[in-house]
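To whoever picks this up:

The parser on our side crashed when reading a file containing two proteins. I've narrowed it down to the boundary between the first structure block and the second sequence. Both blocks are reproduced below exactly, byte for byte. First block:
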Amino acid sequence: MITSVLIDDEKASLDTLEWKIENYCPNIKVIDKIGDSRLAIDSIVKNRPDCIFLDVNMPKISGFDLIENLGDIESYIVLVTAYEEYALQAIKASVFDYLLKPVDKCDLISLTKKMQKDLVSKSLYRSNRIHNVSIEKKIGIQVKGLISFYELNEVIFLKAEGSYTRIFLTNNRMEMISKNLKETISLLPDNEVFFRVHNSYHINLNHITKYYKHQGGTLIMSNNESVSVSRCKKTEILKRIL
């Protein structure tokens, strides 16, 4: 069973989506409905849903602002919007998918099948790391049939780019791999040196050179690249670096 949280400031939209999920998607269970986006983070942290159906245009905190503030979460994020032009922005925000209002029954069913398939793929991926492997203090990255091994201290940070991940390395090197950020992070051995500071960034703490503490904050890394810190990660990052 896939657990889900619905977030929308319009009660009618919340109720309609819940009804469609209950009637057409028996493998999804709605565990919370939230009409005020300011309360969303507490619910998500408490319930740890597999999936979040998130409206874009909401007062106080928009859907995209909420994604940024959530930082490191395992949940699938599905944007629900009446505006098709948000599609490109949704891709950049690394969301799983988006649905147009009014939500079509067939689109919703197709989405749940896609989500279920992805969950199965991730399970197989975790149990069988064939193409990318971690060996002690190295990470192996496969690009076009060639596996290159890098020392962990060569990795400055990882950046999500849709279903791909860009890896920033020392000496102005970069690699792009066809795995999303969560999958790429799983290639790293358990190591306190790396930390997820934002929905789009996973950094090597040893490569931080400066930290500007406005709002969530901005990190300057050893390659002079800027990395955003989500607000909910600010306290933790300060503990790690001070």
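<<boundary where parser fails>>
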Amino acid sequence: MMPFFKTLLLIALAPAAGMLFSCSPDQQMDADKLERQLLIVWIATETDDPTVARAATAAALRNWNELRTAYLRVSPTAQERDVLRRIDLWMVGLRNAVDNAPAHRIISHLNQLHNNLGELRPQYGMDHPLDLLYAFSRQWDWVSEISQDQMMCLLEWGEYAVAYQQARNHWDRFQAIPPVYAAGTLPGRLSRSTTTEHAALRLTNALADFERQLAEANHGPMATSAAHVRTEFFHFLAAAVMYPAEVAAR
């Protein structure tokens, strides 16, 4: 993590510059809003909701333009400017992808934005909640791919169990982080705590069901169970970000 963006009132920049930079709460709040809009684009893409995807992308672009202007006012280093330029490119790419590209292209742009925004995001001295959610999703994609491999050509059953456990660990670590962290990005964890907690419990139960089937070593139903976990993950994510559609209110 570059010092420019750590959660300190005053942060030392490059030694040669001898300057101090204040990372203001307003900038952090705006970054939360931006990441929330990108999560909404992700959910809308996964649930085939193009109207919401376009609206959230437009909001994300506005958030980013405001945030970039605020960052540029404090004379970022060349390395930091490079991060800003990369985000500029991926934001434009996201807008074009949402308008014209298939879902996997949109997801690719969102992944790149998440990785680059991680260099701007204030840190808590622990795993960031969003990093764990993205890590869970990536790992579950792998579990789902294995689950669809009826001949188990990709790896051994024990390795399959390890792949599941890695995904489960990401989810458990996320659950252990108090809702106050990343509250601007996942506001439903505080303001709609009952709905979000119920959605989290459904996902946890779906994972437990998958684990029981895994222990039985019966590959037949695993693809269906893996798909159910993924569905519950996006229901949880929708509740956590207070997604503006019916998927968040089931």
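After patching the parser it read the second block fine. The mean pLDDT is 84. The beta strands are 11-12, 20-21.
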